[in-house]
Amino acid sequence: MRLIFLIALLLAGSAHALDKAAVEKLAFGDGDERIAAIGQLVAEADPRAYEVLKALGEGELQTAGKRVLIVRGDEGVDAATGEKVAPLPPEREDVVANNRLRGAIGDALAGLRLLAPERAPRLTAARELAAGSDAAMLPLVKKALEKENDPDIRPLLELAVASMEMKSGDKAQRLAAIRMLGASTSPNSKTLLAEAARDADVDIRSEAQKSLRAVEGRLAWGERAGLLFAGISLGSILLLAALGLAITYGLMGVINMAHGELIMIGAYATYVVQNLFRAYLPGAFDWYLLAAVPAAFVVSACVGMLLERVVIRWLYGRPLETLLATWGISLMLIQGVRTLFGAQNVQVENPAFMSGGIQVLSNVVLPWSRIMIILFAGLVLAGMWAMLTRTRLGLFVRGVTQNRAMASCVGVPTARVDTWAFGLGSGIAGLAGCALSQLGNVGPDLGQGYIVDSFMVVVFGGVGQLAGTVYAALTLGFANKLLESWSGAVLAKIAVLVFIIVFIQRRPQGLFALKGRALES
Amino acid sequence: MKRRGVLKVLGMSAAIAAIGLGTSSLYAQDKTVKIGILHSLSGTMAISETVLKDTVLMAVDEINAKGGVMGYKIEPVVVDPASNWPLFAEKARQLLTQDKVAVTFGCWTSVSRKSVLPVFEELNGLLFYPVQYEGEEISKNVFYTGAAPNQQAIPAVEYLMSKDGGSAKRWVLLGTDYVYPRTTNKILRAFLKSKGVAESDILEEYTPFGHSDYQTIIAKIKKFASEGKKTAVVSTINGDSNVPFYKELGNQGLKATDVPVVAFSVGEEELRGVDTKPLVGHLAAWNYFMSIKSPANEEFTKKWATYAKAKNIAGHKDKPLTNDPMEATYIGIYMWKQAVEKAKSFDVAKVTAAMAGQTFKAPSGIVSKMDEKNHHLHKAVFIGEVKADGQFNVVWKTKGPVKAQPWSPFIPGNDKKKDEPALMAEKK
């Protein structure tokens, strides 16, 4: 609102009525007429034009008979004159804007914002225009460029002018524009240059090809960075899913087929916390994850400890029976959740700060949710490492897994340590569930998709090794993403499995092997 | 004395039984007919299919409240094939042989339909299939109430090629890896080539069912889009993979004004729970949208809202949503009722014959007609853009109903195929 006011001041035009015909065309015309009407309104450079276009972009423009209104809530003003309309006519129709129109409106609004006296709106507007805009904006941008002397905004505007002149200007202008675009990093320049590289004119073609190569070289770095991030992101998810298993299977030697279901329970715990927040603390909804993280840990840990006490403890040293029993338990847990919450996926909403992303390069956007999960995985890893190496419980766990009989002799309560360790592993699985709920679907079958991956990571990394799990998760995440970009998602999955089978045949102990008498074997 | 007493009792009970019989035939509601509902209520397809089961149940309640079909009360038999394709065939066999249902409403994915098709043909059952699909099939035992490619995919691509759609020149065909996306993309590829699109301007990508990491796919789309000319994405992703796909799309900031994504299996229901603000302008092509303004639709959405509230359907009780396959399901069950009443029989052959030319006032605002021959509905095509509230703005529509072409002319050899189910003798 402040911005509009400032524009109003700048243009020093008292809000006179807009061209009524243009407004009507905007509301009732066909595609081409409406685009033309936008151009006409922009040319008037009037604050009312800004408001009318903004209203159309946001779906606030309505028609009542022949009148065009801007309606916000229960209040309406006439779009052309700005007069208040009260009471609102009961029969109103929305004016629908499609993509083409919305693109033109976006450009037009950005163009009008270029005239604002403040730096921030000008900068964002210049960025928007430089990322690609319609040639119709050329006069407006040129006008703004004459007045502009901000060192950050000028180059953006020059780029915008260059990309617009690429199509329209004469040969000299076009050549200059091509050279200009060659220095940019925007994917839009690449598109324009690729088109120019097929031009009929030899000079333009060769110049465009030169510039295109330069831009492509720079964009390729962005693509590599994007791929690296995707690999790390998938790696962090695999790590979270596998860390719990690294304790229960890696350290304790329990083949826990219900591990995936412990992840799933963590995700459902997050769902329940989210619902509680929505019902009782709607104001603090964005912070529900802070409560969901401990809740997911505790719930999964309790389920895990219960499992250990009731079933697994009687099966130590009998891997086949453990496998069958835990598999049976996993089916029971799935069915249990299905009965409690229904078979359909439940919706876990991202808090506002987790949606959207940060633009690091012109063609790389890193989503906040993934960044958060990478950080979270790091935190969990650090916490677990500290727990195992810095606390008494960790000492006991290591002692018991290395030599149970000796640990028992020196007075370690091995049975209780087993329970705690299993609970810890399960709790970490719960944390993984909490993180996964932010990325994918939460349903009773959630765990099934991760159990194979988790075992793959632990076995690949070397059983009984934390460091191995970390390296394995990152390697697999990376390999998967690299293959995916070459061969597609379906083949990549198969290729990774084949790779692991071959690897395990060559090196059964995994990436890192425990030296000495490991795991009572 | 004793014997006479026994006789008396016997006589009386016989009389009572006779009265009982008499009354039961007076009250027609005691006669029932079973129908089968074959939709996944768990697994990756549950996100889309569960609500179709509820739609059938709602229509059944409505019909029963008004006296049933020909005086027969409908008794629905619900089974859960759990997104497991072989289980679909097993459950279909159970419905036909054990429950002896008169008709079955079910299936979403084409792979599930292909799995049950031999069962329905062998046991001469009747299936109503309510979802848009790739065509290439006409079975005498199936009525297709969803769209064929020429009623959805082709118009959507034509729209994106038009000036208003953004004059797209390059195409990403993105889908889940199974028969529907593969066949649809084959048709679209042939169609695009017929419009002069070069091979190098088409990128085809597939992901497995339940895929949840769309980072590389989106990166690939971005790269492809920057290689010159306006790019559009045609998505045939099915099931719950759509949620991570659209989340990633929004988070990575791929805007509809730059690269529009048009989806064929994403409607109001699939977008529930996705933050749609960054997705504004992405498109879907259907034969019905909840936002369509027509008296029939107003009634339909109101009915659904009341039903969802009464039955406490998760999600819908607070935010009732309707979508295209629900509409197609609803049309299907009413057309079946009309056909049964016309044929005066539940016999599959007689009902099939009576189905030809049935009409129904569809919630989409047109009068939908079952084709006289090819077992497909005539439907109007709508293209909608996602709004910030998860509903769709209709930006383009056909003037009236379009006849289905199950044998797409863009697949070679189809011109010789007959636009009606083959007779059994001919098939062999």
Q: Would you identify the regions of chain A where 5 or more consecutive residues have pLDDT less than 50? A: 1-15, 516-521
**Number of H/I helices of chain B:** 12
The profile of the biggest β sheet of chain A is:
5 strands, antiparallel
* Series of secondary-structure elements of chain A, N-terminal to C-terminal: HHHHEEEEEHHHHHHHHHHEEHHHHHHH
- Provide the β-strand percentage band of chain B: 15-25%
Mean pLDDT over all positions of chain A: 84
Low-confidence stretches of chain B: 17-28, 424-428
Percent strand of chain A equals: 5-15%
Radius of gyration of chain B: 24 Å
Question: Looking at the chains present, what oligomeric state does this protein adopt?
Answer: heterodimer
By secondary-structure content and strand pairing, the structural class of chain B works out as: alpha/beta
**Chains forming the largest contact:** A-B, 60 and 61 residues
Distance between the termini of chain B: 72 Å
How many domains of chain A? Answer: 2
| Rg of chain A computed from alpha carbons, rounded to a whole number of angstroms | 31 Å
Order of helices and strands of chain B: HEHEHEHEEHEHEHEHEEHHHEEEEEH
What average pLDDT do the residues of chain B reach? 88
